[in-house]
Amino acid sequence: MVDTRTAQKRSEIMSKVRSKHTKPELLVRRMIFGMGYRYRLHVVSLPGKPDIVMVGRRKIIDVRGCFWHGHEGCRYGRLPKTRENFWGAKVERNRERDRLNQTKLECAGWRVLVVWQCELKNQEVLKAKLHEFIEAK
Known about the structure:
Elements: H1 7-15, H2 23-34, E1 40-41, E2 52-54, E3 59-64, H3 84-107, E4 111-116, H4 123-135
Parallel strand pairs: 3-4
Antiparallel strand pairs: 1-2, 2-3
């Protein structure tokens, strides 16, 4: 299948994709704040500038988009049929960067929870998962 957009229009669309303050991230932040927990955002001194950082608890919550971060087994994580080589390489670089950053954080004594975009569908289950992660010693 050929892209139906011009290169200029596709560039315009892609330029609007954000890396911070995304809808999934905002939803998780509201949920955590509503549970009474406080946190820092995008701490630049930590590898990968994690989305949500609970400094006193040494916990990090990273909200990832299923497509951009290659969520295996997820219907939203499937690659497009066009330019498969480009997208496959791009997503694999993202996954490798995520693995490297998570390893660095864990070696530095941080506990990391990854929340996938598809997990936001069931908010009660996600809320319980977040609470369990935050309260675990």
